Amino acid sequence: MKTIAALLVAALFTANAVAGGYKESRKGDLSDDGLTPTVIKLDLGDNVIAGAFGSTEGVVDRDYFTFKIATGQQLSAIRVKQQTQVGGNLSFIGLQKGKQVTVPPEGGSPEGLLGWTHFGTDDEGTDILPAICQGAGAKGCTAPLGSGNYTFWVQELAPCNCQYRFVFRVTAPAD
């Protein structure tokens, strides 16, 4: 009995344990407005952010969420996980520094973004943060991202009931 209890305690405290995050299936739809994104709490470790998106009857379901990386921490990776399904070959994820995405979702320029990239099912298991930081026309960044507020924009224009699942890894920089 002690062995089983010890294994359960160890499982709770492993480095790969899921910390904070957000799952639309449990907490409700993420904001559709970049000026009022859903606030998400991230903890040290792996934080799952999972949502549904796509276009239905000409209405695009965009997801906007924001979080703060605390002083002494960094966003070191964003991995595309299994259960990600896109409508076409690729979907979009954009990043703006601060508590909002002010770039218009239609007809805007990526100049106001810190970065962006396209992702798809072929990216499962891949860290897309470096690709986001190199998005053409955006300001650019270098991974890992340090402390501060960041806001993400995720969208799929194809008609579908699609879903994404990312793991945002928050770490403490090595001394």
Helix content: 10-25%
Q: What is the radius of gyration?
A: 17 Å
- Point out poorly predicted stretches: 1-18
Overall strand count:
10
Structural class of the helix and strand makeup? mainly beta
Quick recap:
This protein has helices at 2-12, 24-27, 129-133, and strands at residues 18-23, 38-39, 45-56, 59-61, 63-69, 74-80, 91-97, 115-119, 148-155, 162-171.
Walk me through this protein's architecture:
- The protein is mainly beta.
- The protein has one domain (about 20-170).
- The protein is about 10% helix and about 40% strand.
- It is built from 3 helices and 10 strands; from the N terminus they run αβαβββββββαββ.
- The protein has helices at about 1-10, 25, 130-135, and strands spanning about 20-25, 40, 45-55, 60, 65-70, 75-80, 90-95, 115-120, 150-155, 160-170.
- Strands 1, 3, 4, 6 and 10 form a 5-stranded mixed beta sheet that branches.
- Strand 3 (about 45-55) and strand 4 (about 60) form a beta hairpin.
- The N and C termini lie far apart (about 40 Å).
- Mean pLDDT is about 85; it is low at about 1-20.
Strand and helix map with partners:
Blueprint: H1 2-12, E1 18-23, H2 24-27, E2 38-39, E3 45-56, E4 59-61, E5 63-69, E6 74-80, E7 91-97, E8 115-119, H3 129-133, E9 148-155, E10 162-171
Parallel strand pairs: 1-3, 2-5
Antiparallel strand pairs: 3-4, 3-10, 5-9, 6-10, 7-8, 7-9
